[in-house]
Structures
1.
Amino acid sequence: MIDTNREIDPSGTPLLQVRSVRKAYRSGGGMLEVLRGVDFEVEPAGFVSVIGQSGSGKSTLLHLMGLLDAPDSGEVHLAGTRIDNLPTARRDRLRNTDIGMVFQAYHLLPELSALENVLSPLLVRFSIADWFRHKADARRRAESLLERFGLGGRLHHKPRQLSGGEMQRVAIARALVGQPRLLLADEPTGNLDEASGAGILEALCELNRSDGLSIVLVTHDQSIARRADRIVRLVAGRVENV
Ligand code: ADP
Ligand code: MG
């Protein structure tokens, strides 16, 4: 098995905690206050949907949890360790080892095959010497994830040769190859037809149930949100339980 070399002991609870987070953007002459004191928790093996109207700050919140951006104030904790204020190199490493992210637009690298896209986080993680040590294991893990998501026959396809649903399944496999405990998904079915979207949602539910993967799913679609254990809604910059 690949040595995941975790940054943070994953046994702490809650797995993810957002405390009093505020975030504003400069807008015209003034400031647009998007998050105005958000408190939010995800338990180990929890599955939470975040809903809210377009522009309510769902992506902003997900980006803060995934360390793609930093809050103006407040804190983000992963398994009991504060992570929002870590130095850049540690934040990058944490995103590589502990947090998987999936986006509406897939963000696959067009020149790489499905298999190479899935392997790319591990190429970033390891030094060249380590990569050669881990390569066979890494490849087996990437292939088995792709097979699990029904893409065993698409390993060497480029993204442009795949359907939207297939591209999103590659993106999910890429998010999982480093064995994160937390998956953050931002409107993962937003670009897909109903049947492909249902397949993606089924895959997420199965990962949560069978693997105990913790998931935060952002969606504006109530019927999708209901598949989670718990739904929270962003309204006027704060979180309400639904
Ligand atoms: P949602 O995902 O719920 O649709 P977002 O979190 O993307 O909402 O955006 C919330 C609000 O913040 C929107 O009004 C959006 O235009 C604004 N916004 C998001 N990102 C930026 C940014 N980088 N600079 C300025 N405004 C932004
Ligand atoms: Mg959004």
2.
Amino acid sequence: MAATMIPGATDRRIDALLALLCDNAMIVISGAKIAREIGVTRTTVWRWIEKLRDLGVQVKGHPRTGYHIEQTADVLVPRLLRKRLHQGPFGKRIHHFFKTDSTNTVAMHLGEQGEPHGTVVVAEEQTAGRGRAGHTWYSEKSSGIYMTVLLRPPVSPQQAPLITLVAGLAVREAILEQTGLTPDLRWPNDLLFGHKKFCGILTEMHAEQDQILFVAVGIGINVNHQRIPAELQSIATSLRIETNRVHSRLEICARLLRHLETYYNRFVAEGADPIVSRFSEVSSYARGKRVRIATVSGTYLGTTDGLEPSGLLRVRRDDGRTLPVIAGTLSEAN
Ligand code: BTN
């Protein structure tokens, strides 16, 4: 299937321009040569370079002398991302946006249009990033990873929630590798350092009664945010704030896609068991944690009591009943 051009997606020639500059780092390439190689006018090259500069890419030079890149670019365009990936289906097709409303919304549309398993939608900025329970996801330009992976899993719709756990495990692994710090997993979809969240996962699905048509796994990671907006400061953090250094979003994205593919393949081949037991091992929320569960019909307190084989979290409520959490938002209770 040829890569279709999605409205609003980054022009593939900008991708080619950036790859050309990165492949020739520190070498000055004339505007005319770039224009010839990627098939646009010199004015367009200049305009696109301005656009890249606006994203923080450090391109030195001007149309008459030529351009060169001063520092490795950290823009999640297909060519730069794909060369860090293995051969598998995850990331074989990548749709990049400088700005879009929500990568999950784009991926859901693509799913309906038959886009293949493993397709990635990624944006530098989201204007309407969505979280669970109707929340918005703060999506500052070029600072975070805003990515959705489209999957077509051969499992029943009842097993779909496990894909959120699969994604959480993959993010944990990628961040541990990247930073050396071990994130905690808050069932089902948050990754934390201490009490502060730096990653959220939103899994959406299109299914018939007994068959999943596709799943969109949306992952938002606060990577290089220097500051978190005041209203979120007590509950959110970023990798940069935690580690005091800037991280390559390209590297993190690539690590994440590789781990996601591994965990996903394991889930499809072996079922829920390895996923549920791994999650139980590494999440401090799986057992013995005092929690507050907020649901539409009210809030209750309890202590977590392990995961069910289906991946649902059991909570021993203060009223004595032990029940799985079907819907609701979990937070640690003091
Ligand atoms: C949550 O914690 O409530 C889930 C947040 C998920 C945010 C990501 S960012 C990429 C993708 N696109 C969206 O609109 N949402 C997800």
